[in-house]
Amino acid sequence: MNMEKFAYAIWPWGTESRAEMEQAAKDITEVGFSCFESVKAAIYAYDMDLNAYSEVLKRNNLKPVSFYFHLPQKADEEAFFSNLENELDFVSKLDVKVLSLQGTGSRPADPTDPAVMEYELNKVMRFAKVATQFGITTCIHPHHNTHVMLENEIDYILQNTSAKELSFVPDTAHLIAGECDPLAVIKKYADRVAFTHLKDFTLGADVGSVGLASAGMEVYTNFAELGSGSVDFKSVLKILEDAGYQGYHCIELDTPPSSNKESAFNNYNFIKNLTL
């Protein structure tokens, strides 16, 4: 497999300090990756200093291909959107063209009903319209314990938007955790996919949530290295190849069994040795 289009998610190394970013950059470069996805929170470790952040990338010959954002609770919504233009300006100056957007994480306390889904759609589109101003494509990311988790919720968001307005970033583990068939969902929306998240998970297992990371995302202990769960990665990649997909694939693992670097190495080798 040609590894040029495979990125690695570096947020598990940490998001609060420059030292964590430095270690992640060093580790994934040594493994063989040349690109990565980070999260919005990590840019604040650099105090929004574009030159300082860019220097780390240049020194390690790395490029970011996506940043991950998550929609806020209603009480935090205006503060979130008031900062968004500055954050997207920073990201766009790194030549990032796509963003992963996670839905609101208030499930199961806040049940998903038609009114909630309509509100969620409006919030997604508010974000996407701002991103478009910076030449960035927003990709909705189905995620456990959010309002875009089940297949009918993914359908609602994508079927009430156009491909021009919103793209899709399927996450193989989160689709299983959301009671979806990853192959069926990816095939259904292959023409909307602009980015992917690849990680493994065993069908029927508990996700093992350990609560929120400092970046605001829920962290899971039972997502797995590629090839050690139920995901048929060969078929996932073949579906996308047949659909003409030209984008990046981001390999991700919330909680590595040993170390972040070792899992990155194992995941790299799994994909490198995969034949379609």
Estimate what percentage of residues fall within beta strands: 15-25%
Helicity level: 25-40%
Task: Provide the succession of SSEs.
Answer: EHEHEHEHEHEHHEEEHEH
Instruction: Return Rg in Å.
Output: 17 Å
Principal-axis shape equals globular
Based on secondary structure, the structural category is alpha/beta
- How many helical elements? 9
Average residue pLDDT: 95
Commentary on this structure:
- The protein is α/β, with parallel strands linked by helices.
- Helix content is 38%, strand content 15%.
- It contains nine helices and ten strands.
- The protein has an eight-stranded parallel beta sheet, with helices on one face.
- Strand 4, helix 4 (114-133) and strand 5 (137-141) form a beta-alpha-beta unit.
- Helix 7 (182-188) runs parallel beside helix 8.
- The protein is globular.
- The N and C termini lie close together (8 Å).
- The mean pLDDT is 95.
